[in-house]
Specification:
The structure is a homodimer of 555-residue chains.
Chain A (H helix, E strand, L loop, with lengths): L10 E4 L1 H5 L9 H14 L3 E5 L5 H13 L12 E7 L2 H11 L5 E8 L2 H8 L3 H18 L3 E6 L6 H14 L3 E6 L6 H14 L7 E6 L6 H10 L4 E4 L13 H10 L1 H4 L10 H12 L24 H5 L1 H4 L22 H10 L6 H17 L5 H11 L8 E10 L5 E7 L5 E7 L3 H13 L3 E10 L8 E9 L6 E2 L6 E2 L2 E8 L2 H19 L25
Parallel strand pairs in A: 1-2, 1-8, 2-3, 3-4, 4-5, 5-6, 6-7, 7-8
Antiparallel strand pairs in A: 9-10, 10-11, 12-13, 13-16, 14-15
Helix pairs in contact in A: 2-3, 2-12, 3-4, 4-6, 6-7, 7-8, 8-9, 16-17, 18-19
Amino acid sequence: MVPVGNENYVRIFDTTLRDGEQSPGATMTSAEKLEVARALARLGVDIIEAGFPIASPDDFEAVRRIADEVGHLPGPGGQPPVICGLARTTTKDIDAAWGAVKGAARPRIHTFLATSPIHMKHKLRMDPEEVVERVVEMVSYARSLCEDVEFSPEDAGRSDPEFLYVVLEEAIKAGATTLNIPDTVGYTTPNEFGGLIAGIKANTPGIEDVFISVHCHNDLGLATANTLAGVQAGARQVEVTINGIGERAGNTSLEEIVMALKTRQPVFGLETGIDTTHIMRVSRMVSNYTGMAVQPNKAIVGANAFAHEAGIHQDGMLKHNQTYEIMTPESVGVTRTRLVLGKHSGRHALRVRLNELGYDLADEDLTKIFDRFKRLADKKKTITDADLEALMADELYQPTEVYRLDGLQVACGTMGLPTATVRLAGPDDKVYVCAAVGTGPVHAAYTAIDQVVGVKATLLEFAVNAVTEGIDALGEVTVRIQYDNGQDEVMHPQSEETSVRTFGGHGADTDIIVACAKAYLAAVNKLLVARGLLGGQPPEESSEVGTATQRVLVG
Amino acid sequence: MVPVGNENYVRIFDTTLRDGEQSPGATMTSAEKLEVARALARLGVDIIEAGFPIASPDDFEAVRRIADEVGHLPGPGGQPPVICGLARTTTKDIDAAWGAVKGAARPRIHTFLATSPIHMKHKLRMDPEEVVERVVEMVSYARSLCEDVEFSPEDAGRSDPEFLYVVLEEAIKAGATTLNIPDTVGYTTPNEFGGLIAGIKANTPGIEDVFISVHCHNDLGLATANTLAGVQAGARQVEVTINGIGERAGNTSLEEIVMALKTRQPVFGLETGIDTTHIMRVSRMVSNYTGMAVQPNKAIVGANAFAHEAGIHQDGMLKHNQTYEIMTPESVGVTRTRLVLGKHSGRHALRVRLNELGYDLADEDLTKIFDRFKRLADKKKTITDADLEALMADELYQPTEVYRLDGLQVACGTMGLPTATVRLAGPDDKVYVCAAVGTGPVHAAYTAIDQVVGVKATLLEFAVNAVTEGIDALGEVTVRIQYDNGQDEVMHPQSEETSVRTFGGHGADTDIIVACAKAYLAAVNKLLVARGLLGGQPPEESSEVGTATQRVLVG
């Protein structure tokens, strides 16, 4: 594949679903991944790295569904995105990657092998000659399956440039069409990384026939600057994630690169295919699905990134907006207007507003949302865009409901023993009731749910946000749990270690404890489905109408 | 002041308390600011910008207390930090700044005036000659009061370099000892910003006798790279904030600059006076006090920044820690060990651990914490460092308690009307009881508190986090409120607009609703003190033993 057409076009390779999702606690379900992939296609991403198919059967299946569905969905430029799967340099991995992506209109296999002295010695236990040999063999093999093959020399940022030139030349000869240069540990400075790319461009025979890509990590806060330095030195693909999620301090942020290239176009002279007005919506979707919060002072997508968003006194900023704003909120999809829908708003008004927000709903889904909307409008005078986004996240794209929250009753405070009673509709169409006491109402509710479901999980993360201003706010809760009897089951591509999968859940309600219970039950349902624990009977003490069995020491 | 000694020493100028606190919703009380200033001194910050004294009497008082107390507290290098106050180029501002900082051992006045065409024309409505004249006049005036004077040409990033050389030369002649070059709107790239600093160094007569400083914003995600480019071009002071808080996308992060200079010392050849092992503690303190969350993928201080912190499977990382870790968690004060204190741990064990965490408590404060510790240990099997940090934030450094939460009783769930009853001990030693119904338990509790206190506030932000892993976690709640009848009262130094002050509150409890009520009451108490509303009588309907008067439409 020879670069054609516009030499100033920078390809956006989004790895939110692979390197982003790989970060601890950011696990998404297949349904959530598919939804994010659709949103990425609409955003105009050129390549979607959909996962690491060999990691587990779930991961394979998620990549396959994305290739089959989103791999045929035209983006704003008219073409569907390339769908890419990651593989180590083994035939087993490459076969899995190809099996998962081959249904896409434009499939790609991405294979990698480390080239830094520390990785070759301590991780691979291979000498440089063996590394070159393996690269040639596996890139050739991948190319025999797929026309579009990307190769990455892992930890390139700490590799010997002279050795890199050799490895990359051989990879090109073996059929690689994109060469990706990762700063795997976020170690380099912009001058170093730009110099590395310039050196590769100048010294690698055949480099003019392939794309150079850059992939940076943010351990020292330099991912954006390093990526831009790479682009200025000749890279024409950038590997990024939404909100900069990823392992440790994360990957380069898609939104920062795209908006830097756009805002400073005269400096860079480059363009991308991204429809920037979709940025904020995708950012919120990824934050909701992964449970990875975006800090208010995050560039581009933070709640404070645009001064007018703060909810404080805004006249000054609006008067002088050129003096302090270098890009408009509208350019990234932050709208200044707020929807004022109320209890008398109809189904049509709701559909119109949801369309404006970028949601195109089937009638059945609209009915569900409209129903929730009316119930919320009964409690809350005005419904804002933020409320709608929360309802969408809460109502649609939920995992299979094994157990459904049919009722919750809570008593708590400083004067007694926090107690929760839950009523759950179970998979066998029976209704289970269980009461439990806890250190607080959330603990009590979760303990009662655990007793009905008969699964013991550890709560890893727990966060609540009021999505809207005002004291009658809708509360959004995100939790992350881990199965206590879980065994290692997901493989990490770089460290090759396996780990216990974690499950996230999300709930929204004006009653914060109800939102907490919904979020926890959503995570428990995901766990039950993933672990094939559906058939398990609830323990006897939480049978059809159960009673509290939990005892807690209270001082 | 002529630079002396080590030419490779970079001064850390922390503006968390000025540019950071100025960001919407990050308001701190005077007591919180003083505590942060103490922590900054222990961290080894060279200069603390303590505030903008003319903004309001509260701001003046906070700077004065910091100058008088922290301005005499020796840092790790033995010297107390410079205490700096910001002033526009007016005698009134400069007098206020000097009045506030003069009690410090090493006071500094920082004055600024915009030099970019867009700011001079639209904001200042001054021509360039007038700008130069005003700078000369006001820097001279500041220097007549204080030996240490810093001058910043605001929006230097978009100013004409030739004009900057003239302004800066005149500022030096008028007595400025530090020249700070701000990229006010976060617009420049590292090459541009480094070039700007190099140009200033090469073309400004007298520049060799003063310090060059850089001050960057993160609107395009480039603040860290721009600051490092400035330092490489000759700047020897960097203006930064903890966690990178600040307006819009924030300022340069202290922790990223310090750790980049340290981790890549051979590249930069520079050093700072920061004791990096205090970084994490100060980061958490600032996050707690401001309510500005740190995202998990934030470089250096995010929960995921070090792989081992994730709570998932860690063996891989520990085995290969050199392969994926470029700095150790311990180097920034993240300890791998967790305290295992339990209900049988004594006062001495608690004091020892708190000392290790960097807290040096008076006996009276230790007694308060020990009491809370024992109550928590009754509910929770083991007490971790995170629990202790939460208790410290909750118990110490709270604002004046006008009303104290004496009791709370809540009933909620899907099956009834969420109802809260609060019992508050008031300023007149009377106890007030009030019940209210709401859209959820938090709304109900806040409505009941509002009725007792007789103040109507708008909830701007609301966030809950489980500070510890596990389902019996201690919940930490942060709220931000605004007085509904508030009038503009705080002035913004750059836009010169005034805004309504907001108040934050923080609470921790194993019962999330109790934590919510505590946090809200803390914010309301701050508001009452600040607005001088102490004398007001509670409305009649919430008199000594009151009843619910709140009606809510429930569909």
